[in-house]
From TrEMBL:
Highest taxon, organism lineage: Eukaryota
Keywords from the UniProt entry: Repeat
Region (Disordered), start-end ranges: 1-20
Record's keyword annotation contains Repeat: yes
Similarity comment: family membership: Belongs to the PPR family. P subfamily.
Low complexity biased stretches: 1-12
The name this protein goes by in its record: Pentatricopeptide repeat-containing protein
Biological classification of the source: Eukaryota, Viridiplantae, Streptophyta, Embryophyta, Tracheophyta
Gene3D superfamilies: Tetratricopeptide repeat domain
Pfam families documented for this protein: PPR, PPR_2
Length: 325
């Protein structure tokens, strides 16, 4: 009985030791390591990087997989070896049938953009379905960042958005943010406001950065009177959505202050939503006296305060430390 117990114990010990032995690498893993060394060791192989890719796997009696192609594309893009990319992409498109991860194309688009190769970046995005890769807002955003960084790229944005729609790539909130920021940067604040109004149609919500960009552009580039109607509608819609905070959720209150001053200087009449946004900004920065004064000015100007106005001021007065001043 003792010998049987000892034998069982020895068997369990051998099993535990066997489980800790290192596993032998597969042919694909060996081929991938060979590929990494080959790509890193030569910037201009005699027969091109496509041959390096194929030969690395042929040596180990296996075929290139999606990881191998992604590695090759990303490695060449990072080293700006763009002239070697086309044979690899053409072979991937025509001779392989597996899917490629979107990350490889996102990096390639960004690298093309850094090199100022805007048309090549657009071409890669449009070709993605042919590589069995469904583009999403991630690759679209990468392309928009590239194009919106220069005047030459901005000229291509319209066609890209049309093609993206045909490819059923959905615009995300981040996509709108990139476009609005670019439009504001070049002083096209009217187009930025119109685009802001389209976000609701796409089930996207504006964020503080978008309002900040438009406010800054209104102060720097534009005639506020010309876009007052459109801007007021955007502020009203956002105020309803956020319960009255509106664009005062923007961290930089100084921009809000500048716009409000310009509203008054140009003779425009702020509505209750604009007043609420401004009062909310004053309360957030702790200027309760300023908020009360603005409420008085609001009433004097004939603009009736609503429940949001009073709730904002009352809530601010209830914060710790206010009554000790």
């Amino acid at each position: 009985m003792q010998r049987i117990t000892s034998l069982r114990s020895t068997t369990r010990s051998l099993r535990r030791r066997r489980n800790h032995w290192p596993l032998r690498p597969t042919n694909s893993q060996l081929a991938l390591e060979t590929l990494k060394r080959s790509i890193a060791g030569d910037d201009n192989p005699k027969h091109g990087f496509l041959s390096v890719l194929i030969d690395s796997y042929k040596t180990h009696h296996c075929s290139p997989n999606p990881i191998a192609y992604s590695l090759t594309i990303q490695s060449l893009a990072r080293r700006s070896l763009f002239r070697h990319l086309e044979p690899v992409l053409n072979h991937l498109e025509s001779s392989e049938r597996f899917e490629i991860d979107e990350c490889a194309f996102v990096e390639l688009i960004l690298r093309y953009g850094k090199a100022g190769m805007h048309k090549e970046a657009v071409d890669v995005f449009l070709r993605m379905p042919r590589f069995r890769c469904a583009p999403t807002s991630a690759s679209l955003d990468a392309l928009l960042r590239v194009l919106c960084a220069s005047a030459e790229g901005l000229a291509l944005v319209g066609d890209v958005l049309v093609n993206a729609s045909d490819m059923r790539v959905r615009l995300a909130g981040s996509s709108f943010g990139i476009l609005i920021g670019a439009l504001c940067h070049v002083g096209k604040v009217g187009a930025a406001i119109e685009l802001l109004g389209q976000m609701e149609v796409h089930d996207c919500e504006p964020d503080a950065g978008m309002y900040s960009s438009i406010l800054h552009s209104l102060c720097e580039h534009s005639d506020l009177r010309a876009w007052w109607g459109s801007w007021s509608k955007c502020v009203a819609r956002e105020s309803r959505r956020t319960g009255g905070n509106g664009f005062a959720s923007v961290g930089d209150f100084q921009k809000v202050d500048e716009v409000f001053d310009e509203i008054l200087v140009t003779g425009l009449t702020p509505n209750v939503f604009t007043y609420n946004a401004y009062i909310n900004g004053l309360c957030k920065k702790g200027d309760i006296d300023g908020a009360r004064d603005m409420l008085a000015c609001m009433v004097k100007a004939g603009c009736e305060a609503d429940v949001v106005t009073y709730n904002t001021i009352v809530a601010a007065c209830g914060r710790p430390g206010i009554w000790e001043r």
